[in-house]
Amino acid sequence: MSWDALSYPWQACVQEAWAAHCAGSLPIGAVITDQSGNIIARGRNRIFESSAEDRQIHGHRLAHAELNALLNLADTIDPTTCVLYSTTEPCALCAGAIGMSGVRTVKYAACDPTAGGIALLEATPFLRGRKINVTGPEWGNFEAVLVALRVAQRYRKGLGQGIIVRALESTVPRGTALGAWLFETGHIQRMCEAGVDAASMLNELFILLERS
């Protein structure tokens, strides 16, 4: 895979995830498109950030990417015609927010074996009645490089031996191994400090994944 093989919504999601990673937050990005595929809202994880533009929340445990994208969705838009894209399977908080928002289609690129909450969209009569169509994960190598970013961030926070990394090691081993390498060599941090853009970062991770 390569950056150019991704549709624009997925590229925008990665841009948001990379910005979150370099800002010290969780590398998760989300966008919402209208029925024509135009991006009408963006959001990223900002739980460790001190400021945010638009209506995104920041510096709080609830400052998740999907929630921030939903908060930026204009009130004049019919949410039932929209598609929410996320780099990572929405958690319980975000699955609930999606259900309440009225968005009917969700696409995610990487699994979350510990906090993924997409199954909760079938947990109650109300949520089942929303009939939300969910697709994910999208593609193996894309999932692996996104997991690598998450794992590198976990190591950066001193949580490399925690339950999240162990679960990802069982489900996406190549991505987990790449993430550990990116952190241990300092490679991912050097890319952040050098201001490498999301496209170049992703293409490099695809190459490293293929070599591993």
Question: Low-confidence stretches at least 5 residues in length (pLDDT < 50)?
Answer: none
How many strands in all?
5
What percent of residues are in strands? 5-15%
Q: What best-fitting shape do the alpha-carbon axes yield?
A: globular
Number of helices: 9
Structural category is alpha/beta
**Head-to-tail CA distance between termini:** 15 Å
User: Mind telling me the C-alpha Rg?
Assistant: 16 Å
Largest sheet: 5 strands, mixed
Q: Can you give the mean pLDDT?
A: 96
Portion in helices: 40-55%
Order of helices and strands: HEEHEHEHEHHHHH
Q: Write out the strand line-up for the largest beta sheet, numbering strands in chain order.
A: 2-1-3-4-5
Q: How does this model look, in words?
A:
This protein has 212 residues and is an alpha/beta fold. Helices cover 46% and strands 10% of the residues. It has nine helices and five strands, in the order H-E-E-H-E-H-E-H-E-H-H-H-H-H. Helix 6 crosses helix 7 (173-184). The longest helix has 17 residues, at 140-156. The chain starts with 7 loop residues before the first helix and ends with a helix. The mean pLDDT is 96.
